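Rather than argue in generalities, we reproduce a single protein record, letters for residues, whole numbers for local backbone shapes, just as it appears below:
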Amino acid sequence: MIGNAGSWPGVLVAVVAANLTPGPACAQDRITRDQVVAILARASPEHPADFTGQDLSGLDLSGIDFKRANLTKCRLVRTNFAKARLFSATLTDAVATDADFTGATLDLAVGYRVDLRRAVLRDANLFAVILYDANLSDADLSGARLIGPVTNANAARAKLVKANLGVDPGNQSMGIMRVDATGVDFSGADFTGANLRKMLLIRANLTGADLTDADVTGADLAGAVLKDVRGRDRIRGLDQAVFHD
């Protein structure tokens, strides 16, 4: 039994107040471009914006500086990030299918398990990124500069025409900076004219990939699957690649 009736007004006030008190943003909340810009205006690289779990799908965010923002678990479907600055941004578990990152800067970005299926990353800069277990299937990275680990990612049918995935000779004082594509599925990918010098392709699946005019000088292909590779007779540096286990 509830106590005396005189306590009811206080209980009702408390219940109403609790229902009117704004709680934390729900996962996948939709926000507008103006809201994104306003949040970023209050942020700084030292105190980055936190968009965790929010829905930025379809927004035109081209050219915007995200100041190391946290985009973990965000929904970014068909979002336009063309020429945006996503330096050191966090994209872990984000869904960015069909998003446009043309010419964007993603240096030092962290994207464990990020979903980039069919995303466009043409001419994007991805130096020292972390893309473990990312899904890059059918993505377009033509002309992109990529250095960093993409271990166990899915890049089936990805387009990497003239992409620069080779060792960066200008940063050897930091140790060998290169793409670690160990265990990556590159089946059906297009590497036409790509720089793959000293790239780690250990146990990578290159079945049906097009390597026409690709440079694999010094690349580690130990255990890689090269079945039905296209353009084999035009692969550059194949005699200097590493094949031993």
In short: Residues 135 and 154 are 5 Å apart (CA to CA). The longest helix spans residues 8-20.
